[in-house]
């Protein structure tokens, strides 16, 4: 469940996606209209022959979520504040158990299960997209926190007097490094989209690849914010690796090269300086695979494997 799209899938025990469904998120509409879109995704999945074999339902939602109450309040979906998503989904899936985690925690579960954080005992995984989310693996285990939000790095402030973030704080990592903010900053500094009118972060990345100085600077600023957040995390809890996925990570070295360089500026203490930065392996499917992994763990189908 995200600010841009609602994606669903039937996922098997190997992490294969058997059936997919997707709808755009009517993010500016009222709560019931947003829920109708979720119900549409569920109806598509339930029409599959494989639906009868479904044991559990996992939800990875844009945060904040409250897993202890089964509610979600996605920052980019104002119609949902304390919205009882678990109860609303549960009554549409015929009594199957429903597990809720934040989208960053879901992505982390997926990357730890079969992606770039596999076998790592201490990792920060991040989704850099419309928003910025994250999750933590600590001591070899997914660390969700009491309400399922631990590792929500997008709303750590890295610019004390910076721009106001939709969350209410200032200078959050997300306010600087999310896709829309990369595009906004480039436009404000004079970058202009090409003939196709595409003013997304991907278009800014394409311009940066072509040597556009304003586009490059916008990505470098995003990389700086991410580096400061990763360095803070490494210093607090001693992560070995930071895994970065989401649409903005698709910019590749346009993002990763300045990120690694800036990390050297901020992760200065000996125990934090060695943190590796890796691209996520599961791409756009990480949220789906991770939500399934979280649900499967909840009903005891399997455990996320420890280091091999
Ligand atoms: Zn914020």
Automatic annotation (TrEMBL):
Gene3D superfamilies assigned to the protein according to its UniProt record, in alphabetical order: 3.30.420.40
Domain of life: Bacteria
SUPFAM superfamilies documented for this protein: Actin-like ATPase domain
Pfam family, one: ROK
Family annotation (InterPro entries): ATPase_NBD, ROK, ROK_cs
Family the UniProt entry places it in: Belongs to the ROK (NagC/XylR) family.
Official protein name in the record: ROK family transcriptional regulator
Organism: Streptomyces eurocidicus (Streptoverticillium eurocidicus)
């Amino acid at each position: 469940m995200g600010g841009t799209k609602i994606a669903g899938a039937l996922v098997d025990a190997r992490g294969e996606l058997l059936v997919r469904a997707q709808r755009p998120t009517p993010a500016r509409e009222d709560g019931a209209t947003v829920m109708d879109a979720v119900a549409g995704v569920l109806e598509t999945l339930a029409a599959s022959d494989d639906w009868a074999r479904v044991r559990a339902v996992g939800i990875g939602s844009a945060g904040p979520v409250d897993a202890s109450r089964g509610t979600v309040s996605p920052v980019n979906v104002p119609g949902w504040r304390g919205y009882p998503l678990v109860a609303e989904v549960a009554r549409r899936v015929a009594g199957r158990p429903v597990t809720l985690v934040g989208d960053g925690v879901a992505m982390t579960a997926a990357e730890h299960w079969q992606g770039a954080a596999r076998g790592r005992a201490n990792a920060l995984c991040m989704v850099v997209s419309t928003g910025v989310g994250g999750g933590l693996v600590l001591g070899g285990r997914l660390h969700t926190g009491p309400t399922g939000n631990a590792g929500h790095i997008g709303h750590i402030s890295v610019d004390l007097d910076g721009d106001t973030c939709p969350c209410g704080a200032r200078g959050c990592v997300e306010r600087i490094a999310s896709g829309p903010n990369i595009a906004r900053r480039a436009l404000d500094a004079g970058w202009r989209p090409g003939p196709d009118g595409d003013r997304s972060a991907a278009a800014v990345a394409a311009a940066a690849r072509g040597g556009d100085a304003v586009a490059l600077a916008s990505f470098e600023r995003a990389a700086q914010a991410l580096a400061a957040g990763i360095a803070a995390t490494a210093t607090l809890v001693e992560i070995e690796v930071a895994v970065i996925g989401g649409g903005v990570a698709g910019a590749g070295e346009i993002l990763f090269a300045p990120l690694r360089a800036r990390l050297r500026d901020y992760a200065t203490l000996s125990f934090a300086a060695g943190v590796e930065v890796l691209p996520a392996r599961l791409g756009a499917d990480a949220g789906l695979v991770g939500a399934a992994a979280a649900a499967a763990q909840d009903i005891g189908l399997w455990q996320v494997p420890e280091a091999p």
